[in-house]
Specification:
Layout (H helix, E strand, L loop, with lengths): L1 H47 L3 E5 L2 E3 L1 E3 L3 H10 L4 E4 L1 E3 L3 E5 L9 E4 L4 E5 L3 E5 L4 E10 L4 H8 L5 E6 L34 E10 L4 E9 L11 E5 L15 H11 L7 E5 L14 H9 L1 H16 L9 E6 L1 H12 L6 E5 L35 E7 L6 H14 L4 E5 L6 H14 L3
Parallel strand pairs: 14-15, 14-16, 16-17, 17-18, 18-19
Antiparallel strand pairs: 1-2, 1-11, 3-10, 4-11, 5-6, 6-9, 7-10, 8-9, 8-10, 12-13, 13-15
Length: 449
């Protein structure tokens, strides 16, 4: 009887253990399913809230949003239906309106400037067209309006601000001509900031140029997080006269820092930037060349980029091909060469920019009879519907000592041809780095979107 009793007891324990195991397995499966559902829902929410759009009285503005709980909560409010806030002018420097509920806050004493978007007292939206010092939680900053444009937008009466989630399918409708360019970008955008990954500069990368009949070099900026399993659009950059392939892309150069800061703030897209060397001839003879000889040697870079450099970049790096993924920009003499390259190779370049471009693109009356004005084209090649630039951008400062007339002439000729372009004649700038900085900001902000 003792054996029978012991056997029964063992059977009872086994049944109990089995039942517990089944229950635990069921609980584990339920927990796993819940986790998968939560993860899937989180991905759906992230996709649904990928782009937060802001309009002021129906005018859409570009915003660099902060990555914080306050902005996440604002996105949630606009997720299903647009969130509209009635604003009121206050103090001659801001518009204020009630959000209707409290958002998470982390107030910090801040001196604001035009374009700043702040959360005040946890439940008040504040947008500035002037300056004030107070404790706020920063939500973001409007990036495509100057101080005078912000004052015009917000300083003439109460406004209505609407937030909505911009669905992914609508992003292809972006019009780079739809917003004015900025020329008041703050100095810190061109300086090294803590916590920002500026990518990797590959220096003196060598390739063989059939156009030069020799090896050439270029500097290449790979974006933060560069991954060979992903593909990236490419921007080719021409330096100025007597410059080199390390002028714009180098450790600590303004373009390297600007691009890293813009990418970190979501103001541009991941891309590869190639600093072209315009000298396209035998390297051993470079030091003996005169200015006139250099001028004509630089013309050869127009073909070198398309025939030799682009295939090398596409073979060596993880690159998106096609004109929709390729841009060219340059300054001064490089601005003239970028226009020539873009227009000669319209099938390869969808985005073209020339910052205070020199003469020598098409015939003009400026510097006539000098080697500076020997034109590459008799006239601009006429784009077709299939190869019209997605964005054509030129600019020149009103204090530029050389290239005001030719830049505006290029604008007028292109306009007469029916070629859409955005050409800015900018007050207060000359022919120097502070102007190039502003121009590159604008171009980086608008390409490949």
């Amino acid at each position: 009887m003792k054996k029978v009793g012991l056997l029964v007891a063992i059977m009872i324990v086994c049944v109990a253990v089995t039942a517990c195991g089944c229950q635990n397995n069921s609980e584990d499966k339920a927990t796993s399913n819940d986790a998968n559902e939560n993860a899937s829902q989180a991905v759906d929410n992230a996709d649904a809230m990928k782009n937060l759009k802001m309009t002021i009285n129906g005018t859409e503005v570009n915003v660099a949003w902060e990555d914080n709980e306050s902005v996440d909560a604002l996105k949630q409010l606009a997720k299903e239906n647009p969130l509209t806030i009635s604003m009121s002018m206050y103090g001659g420097f801001e518009q204020v309106g009630s959000i209707g509920q409290n958002l998470p806050r982390n107030d910090v004493q801040t001196t604001t400037s035009a374009g700043d978007i702040m959360l005040y007292s946890g439940n008040q939206l504040t947008v500035f067209y002037g300056s004030n010092s107070w404790a706020y939680t920063r939500l973001g900053r409007i990036t495509d309006k100057s101080e005078s444009q912000m004052k015009e937008l917000l300083g003439n009466g109460d406004v209505t601000i609407t937030f909505s989630i911009l669905k992914e399918s609508t992003t292809s409708n972006y019009d780079p001509y739809g917003t004015q360019n900025r020329y008041d970008v703050e100095d810190k955008m061109f300086e090294r900031q803590s916590g920002v990954d500026y990518g990797r500069v590959e220096k003196d990368v060598s390739y063989y140029s059939t156009v030069a009949g020799d090896y050439k070099q270029c500097n290449i900026l790979l974006p933060a997080g560069y991954n060979e399993n992903e593909k990236y659009p490419v921007m080719y950059v021409f330096h100025g006269f007597d410059g080199s392939h390390s002028d714009q892309i180098n450790d600590g150069s303004f373009l390297t820092l600007l691009y890293g800061n813009m990418l970190q703030k979501g103001l541009t897209v991941p891309m590869i930037i190639v600093n072209v060397d315009m000298y396209t001839d035998k390297q051993s003879e470079k030091s003996a060349k005169s200015e006139e000889q250099l001028r004509y040697i630089y013309d050869k870079a127009i073909d070198d980029v398309a025939i030799d450099l682009m295939p090398f970049i596409e073979k060596t790096y993880s690159v998106k091909t096609g004109r929709e993924n390729t841009a060219v920009a340059g300054l001064s003499e490089g601005g003239a060469k970028s226009l020539c390259t873009g227009f000669k190779w319209l099938d390869k370049f969808g985005y073209i920019a020339g910052f205070a471009p020199d003469t020598g693109v098409i015939p003009t009356e400026f510097y006539k009879g000098t080697f500076w004005n020997t034109p590459v084209f008799d006239k601009f090649p006429q784009p077709t519907e299939a190869n019209t630039p997605y964005y054509l951008y030129m600019s020149v400062g009103d204090k530029d000592p050389w290239n005001i007339d030719c830049t505006l002439y290029y604008r007028d000729v292109l306009g007469q041809m029916g070629v859409k372009n955005q050409t800015d004649y900018v007050k207060g700038y000359g022919h120097d780095e502070p102007f190039w900085e502003q121009c590159f900001y604008n171009f980086l902000n608008k390409i490949f979107r």
